[in-house]
Amino acid sequence: MRRLLLCLLATGLATVATPAAAQLGDLRIEIQQPAADLLLTEWVPTLEVAGGASVFGGVRTLDLFLVMDTSKSLQRNDPKDYRAQGAIGLVQSLPSRSDIQLGLVDFDRKARLISPLTKDRAAIVRALHKLDRSGATDLAAGIRTALEGFEKDARPDSSRVMLLFTDGRSDVDEARGAMQEARRKGVAIHALHLGAGRKGASILEEIAQATGGSFLPVTDPARLPEAFLNLRTTGVDQVMIEVNDSPPFPAVLAGGTFTANVPLEMGENKIVATATSLDGRTRQDSVSVVVSSPLTITIDEPSNGTLFTGRPTEMAVAGSFENLVPEFVAEHPEWAVQSVSLSVNDSPPFATTLEAGRFEGRVALKEGENLVRARVSTADGRVAENAITVSVRPPGCAELHVEALHEGEPALSVSDRAVEIVFDASNSMWGRMEGRPKISVAKEILLDTLDWLPADLKLGLRVYGHQHPRKRRNCTDSELLVPYGAGNRGRIRAAIAEFRPRGQTPLAHSLEQVASDLGDFRGERAVVLVTDGIESCGGDPVAAARNLQKTGSIPVHVIGFGLG
Question: What global pTM score does this model have?
């Protein structure tokens, strides 16, 4: 506020705010957009916040009369008619979605209702363009005509505000009488005076003080457009916005409304708007916006296109699902997953059991093609589906089965091999690729790949950036979730379904752990690195990869997602 006053004084403007605003009602503020507990399943970097704030009545509706002096002296004091330009600029600056009614009264020797309260802003602008400048100055007539307009068309719970502009003096006793009427009816009058003399300005200052409005004297007519915008028409000096623990920043105020664009992060975003009145009181309102990946479900077992050559009557089905950020769901059970059901062709649903983001169930099969559907439902009504096809065929008269064995186990080759997957779960994996979060695409591809890898291949899974949020800058955030071994596909699938991107990219540190992960295994070894970004912790991943190749003949294969 101090900075604003210094700025206005330096340009010939000065706002006088008074404690009278506190007598007219409680300070109110309301965030009207976005709605409380909004869920966004597609990431957006910013979101518009809009609402209202007032000490004169309701925050959802504003009824505002422009009471404009049209006396002849304006031809001399404001020859370029900055008066009309300022009023038009104010009307055009009001947010298009705000619920505001505007009215127009002009006055010289007498007052005229040019336009009753209306939402047609274009009509008000046209009328302002046509204002003339002739006659004397009668403040009381202008105020009383606007009060009659409020009486006829104002809404019950609106903030009722009058913006009064003049460049001259008027009958003081008559003006005081009109001022008292406005005060009794709860109408705030903001006064704008053009001129250097105190005699004309003193009664306007008194009117503003008595009704809880603000007073702004202007000596240079070219400053009038700026002055109209600087009037705090609903008694609110500023609205500051915070998101989570971010430093507060000012919203744009216009006609009792405020707007701001706020940055969003994955997870829950608590948006707090704090209004400060002209007399120093504060009041807050807040909403919560959750940004998450879409609800998804994947059938992991059996694989799509599986063929059964016996006569099975039922089959086990297992898979995973992704919902909102787990920390948020823990606090909001109304958005948790409620059920997962299975069906085959047009069958009734089969029940499943749920645990830690996974589901298991059994379904009945028939000979021929079977379309197996999995459907996940949440308590708040969201659903997602996935489907695979399996076929059942009776055995033929004779079938030849050839199988290669390695140490007594089925294998596609006799090579003893181990592969460690090093997976990037840093915060940047929430970025989008082809319209979807990169993390969802990467997980889906990795799950599909597991079905095609040889059965004798020993697999391990290391993930980095999933345990600590990025702001903690934890550069040792790397964990071997599944040690290498054969027959651990189920554990790897479960681990993939569980982790969420959160933190830094300690790429070199993760590669440095691979040698100890593989221990004393002496067969063929390799690393598959799945990542979307570069090292963020100061390490040298190229040197780490070279060291793996040099000391253990371990190549590092890289799958890059959305790399620049």
Answer: 0.47
